[in-house]
Automatic annotation (TrEMBL):
Species for this entry: Paenibacillus plantiphilus
Transmembrane parts of this sequence: 20-37, 57-76, 104-127, 139-161, 168-191, 226-247, 259-279
Keywords: Membrane, Transmembrane, Transmembrane helix
Keyword Transmembrane helix among record annotations: yes
Designated name of the protein: ABC transporter permease
Taxonomy, superkingdom: Bacteria
């Protein structure tokens, strides 16, 4: 060990004489300086500080890995290039001492790169809103990710230098990192090759775009990253021992070779064990996702996969969930137990014996009872309740439904947890089917993939709009989960959640706070609440105008600020009561685009109901553009609509558009009132596909003349 220490000190002293070794630290410092200055220079933050850090960390880390790997090849091969190695072989020094001494110098350099990154992260994160425990967890995550990867890359550099004694050894480092980059590019939820191969990276990349998830931080990836990097560390040690064996093998002592081989075999056992555990965890998530795709695959008469169903295909159901009382327990991770009392209203015209409910199939029903005789049966997500005596029209039925099970669900090749309950984070969206929904509903829709992705299917959440509002009373039992939580209904003084909503329930828990703008609750990470409040205030004026114009509620009751991947899952089910915004929604607000988005929240079926609905949508957008004073370059709605629709000739334009344009020639107020009538008429239709613009305008003219 004294010789190894001597080699380490001598090599470190020689390395410090190279003035260019400070250049990587300067480059990294300039990169981080630009990132921090750009973020802190913003007057209002629309993204969390940690999110900005992690968006840049993974790319800056690759630069550090490249520099550390190239240095490792240089350290291992420089004596060979200078022919000093021919002198070394005459020294009374073991291969292990010689190679390990140089390897420790390279690791010291890599540790300095990691330490500089941790220092920047630690100081910058003190300026954020996270607590000390969260601060330490983030430092630990970056440390194991970066240092583990550097440890592995340096060992690989020594192995390449031992195997290849020319410049090609240097090329192997960027080639290895290129493979890791391609694997990470394959980790965006639509992998073209087996996504299990994504585990073969020197850092944990089993996430989509960024390991940071808004109010949940890095909690979803932290434990798995520790497992992954432990396996990487063990593999790095094995590779180092292999490099020592391959370095001048003819001068290695027999006992030295035997000791190294023994250590390699001993280390392979925990490496395989830890790697196997990490593989099993991801494989279980991927298999569940693949089961979801197959379970919900839409099939035609001949068994072929269909495209997604349209909103007009949603069947009307004569029952309504009038009241739902839930007592929710979370006894362990991803496990929930619920006692529910339901009041179901029958709005049909003839007596009926069967009622259908929807509850995720992973939740097993433990009690299904009522004051009347009934029987319950399950079929996938469906619960069929058969009443021995027929239910009369306008009747109310009280039902006790208790259930429990594992609610954990996955999307995007098993990389995105769609529903989870953990000690430090909770997400139970309505689409997870965690509470009883009235009717036979499709929680998930799966269709044949339109590209060559590995799983061969695409999934999206089902369209779960309700026909009637429900009065909810929800109690989260027990205090084991000591994190802030929020529901789409407000919290009462007694700690329960009470309120009526036609949207439904979505439960979130994490590092969140609430703010209010008018009657709208905003729930999100503390660092983005000011930006979310500012954006909501911009929309507030338009919501107020539309409510005064159309006479219907427009402003949402609650807005969740979520990570983009989670926000995107809610788009299929638009609601006026509940919005989910991402940082892009609150940070990139264009006044000329706002009218389009406002109307899309009211009428979300662009193209699915034909040209008549499209004309109505555009007419509403035109009114909002005019109200906001946004210049379009056109003086009349008809001309603007023709340009927006890119109709080649006047005859191709829908006839209803010209007929509606005549009202604008009379006056803007007449046009506004005609559009209002059309919208309310459209709203009143049970089947939106029945909307006919010309017939509705004829009815409007008849009503106006009376």
């Amino acid at each position: 060990m004294s010789k190894q220490g001597l080699i380490y000190r001598n090599e470190l002293r020689l390395l410090n004489r190279n003035p260019f070794l400070i250049l990587p630290f300067v480059v990294l410092l300039l990169c981080w300086g630009y990132v921090i200055f750009s973020y802190e220079n913003q007057s209002v933050h629309y993204e969390e500080l940690a999110a900005e850090f992690y968006n840049n960390f993974q790319w800056i880390m690759l630069i550090g890995l490249l520099l550390a790997g190239l240095l490792a090849v240089y350290m291992a091969g420089k004596d060979h290039e200078s022919e000093f190695e021919h002198v070394v072989v005459t020294y009374k020094v073991k291969n292990t001492e010689w190679v390990a001494g140089k390897w420790l110098v390279a690791q010291t350099y890599g540790l300095c790169l990691t330490s500089m990154t941790l220092l920047i992260q630690g100081v910058w994160f003190l300026n954020g809103s996270m607590g000390m425990e969260e601060w330490i967890r983030n430092l630990a995550y970056v440390c194991v990710q970066m240092e583990g990867a550097i440890f592995f890359i340096i060992s690989c550099g020594f192995l390449f230098a031992a195997l290849i004694r020319n410049m090609i050894a240097y090329i192997c480092i960027p080639a290895l990192l290129g493979i890791a980059f391609l694997a990470q590019a394959n980790s965006y939820g639509f992998a073209l090759v087996n996504p299990r191969f994504n585990l073969l990276t020197p850092y944990d990349s089993m996430y989509i775009a960024s390991p940071y998830d808004s109010i949940w931080g890095i909690h979803g990836v932290f434990d798995e990253a520790l497992l992954h990097q432990l396996a990487v560390f063990l593999l790095g040690v094995i590779i180092l021992f292999a490099a020592i064996l391959l370095f001048r093998p003819h001068r290695s002592l027999r006992i030295e070779k035997r000791m190294l081989m023994t250590l390699i075999i001993i280390l392979m056992l925990p490496a395989i064990l830890v790697g196997g555990i990490r593989y099993e965890h991801y494989d279980r998530a991927l298999e569940q996702f693949m089961d979801t795709g197959q379970r919900y695959m839409s099939k035609g008469a001949n068994g072929e996969s269909l495209f997604y169903t349209m909103p007009e295909d949603r069947p009307k159901y004569p029952f309504a969930m009038e009241r739902t009382q839930l007592n929710v327990y979370f006894p362990s991770e991803n496990w929930m137990k619920v006692d529910s009392q339901l009041t179901i209203a029958y709005n049909g015209d003839v007596p009926i014996n069967d009622v259908s409910l929807t509850l995720h199939h992973q939740l097993a029903v433990t009690d299904c009872s009522s004051h009347v005789q009934l029987s319950c049966s399950r079929d996938n997500d469906g619960i069929r309740i058969h009443f021995h005596d027929a239910i009369e029209p306008d009747a109310r039925i009280d039902l006790n439904l208790d259930y429990e099970g594992n609610i954990g669900q996955f999307r995007f090749d098993g990389l995105l947890q769609h529903a989870f309950v953990e000690s430090d984070r909770i997400y139970l969206p309505k689409e997870a089917g965690w509470y009883p929904l009235i009717g036979e509903r499709h929680l998930v829709e799966s269709v044949r993939a339109r590209d060559d992705r590995y799983v061969q299917f695409e999934v999206r959440n089902g369209e779960l709009a309700e026909d009637y509002p429900t009065e909810f009373d929800v109690t989260i039992m027990g205090q084991e989960i000591g994190i802030p939580m929020a529901l789409t209904i407000p919290r009462a003084k007694d700690g329960s959640y009470k309120g009526a909503t036609q949207y439904g329930l979505s439960l979130i828990g994490g590092n969140l706070e609430e703010a209010s703008v008018g009657q709208t609750r905003i729930v999100g990470h503390p660092e983005v609440l000011d930006g979310a409040r500012k954006t909501t205030e911009l929309y507030q004026e338009s919501w107020s105008y539309m409510e005064g114009w159309l006479g219907v509620p427009i402003a949402p009751k609650v807005i969740y600020i979520l990570d983009d991947d989670y926000q995107d899952r809610t788009r299929v089910m638009p609601s006026r009561e509940f919005y989910a915004w991402s940082v892009y929604d609150i940070g990139y607000v264009d006044a000329s685009f706002m009218p389009y988005r406002l109307v899309a929240n009211l009428i979300n079926e662009i193209g699915s109901y034909g040209d008549d609905v499209s004309v109505l949508q555009r007419a509403m957008i035109w009114v909002l553009l005019d109200h906001s004073g946004i210049e379009t370059g056109y003086g009349q709605f008809g001309d603007w609509y023709a340009a927006e629709g890119r109709y080649a000739t006047h005859e191709q334009k829908p006839k209803g558009a010209d007929k509606l344009s005549h009202y604008e020639e009379v006056g803007k107020e007449q046009f506004r009132q005609a559009v209002k009538y059309l919208f309310l008429h459209y709203e009143g239709l049970e089947d939106k596909a029945e909307f006919k613009l010309e017939a509705a305008l004829t009815a409007y003219e008849g009503a106006a003349s009376q």
